[in-house]
Amino acid sequence: MYTQTFPVDVIRRDFPILATKVNAHPIIYFDNAATTQKPLAVIESINTYYRYHNAPVHRGVYKLAANVTELYEKARQHIAQFINAPSADQIIFTRGATEAINLIANSFGQQQIAKGDIILVSMMEHHSNIVPWQQLCQRKGAILKVIPLTEAGDIDLQAYRSLLEEYPVKIVAIIHVSNVLGAVNPIAQMTQLAHQHHASIVVDGAQAISHMSVDMQALDCDFYVCSGHKIYGPTGIGFLYGKAALLNVMPPYQTGGAMIETVTFEQTRYAAPPQRFEAGTPNIAGVLGLDAALSYLERIGGMPSIEAHEKALLTYLYQKLQDLPSVQIIGAPAYRAALLSLTVHGVHPHDLATFLDHYGITARAGHHCAMPLLRHYQQVALLRFSLGLYNTRQEIDSVVKRLQQAVEELGHG
Question: What amino acid positions are annotated as catalytic residues?
């Protein structure tokens, strides 16, 4: 029996966009894996920064600059606490998870990888966690190998162990939660195995951080990357967590102002992390907006409450979809975060998404930046429903009703 203890009706009032309509229908936002909507607290934080705090950080000695620098560094400390990182100095601000992965590949990877070395990625990776490693392999003469999946859509741990034992693996780059299957990968276990074989592990946490608590000290991974817009914060901001011992010896990814200790025409000495990796004027408003997003999540009950709410919704959605015989849900992983992808017999996913959009329902159709995974399942496109903290069981009822209508009107037998 479904019971709702999460105050979702109250929470929804904090998200102005949910009051909008499409073709006179209330918007039902089921594309949270692409980007989440923003609460008023985040919107107001950005507005407040530009109204009252706009000044550069780490530069001026005047009070306005000193005040915003304090706010900026408090946000870094807050993120470190939110993910249980040992130190705020291990948090590097980036434009998002994509830039963070590129930073690791072009700094740590460039430093560590040699000809003949192996980099492991999984079959379920987002393009952002494939292409940077491909390019590194091409530059260095290294080899990219793929961790296969089980029939259910989980990481094949036995195959993973065999790859680590058989090849000179230097880096494992793995997604925490699949943006297509919703599969939650056993990162702590995979990290332990990687370290046993002297490999470093890079975790793409973009799809995980908005659905569950993440703990850097428990996971023990070497790097973890996130995008702020996936966790109810602004676009154009994200962060990289790295182990201090690795960050301290990594060269900068970009160069310019703020990331230096001294500059002469003969030589430049770089600042210690995190400043070493934050060249130029940063996205200060984005950092403060992300800080506000995390505070908001903590204020409404924190990640355990959000995770419980979303799990109940996902279970309900899954059960409702079972009543539609023409629907095939892709994958059956042991642990699934709050998203799933599907096909409908006889109807193209883009046609489904267009039909649903007429009724204000946002659902993503396409390859989801995971073309190798879709080829694995012999698909060119999928329809994805991804849930967030403000979604409701009533919205699921509406979505399933319209999906059934789409099958009846668009289906071809």
Answer: 369
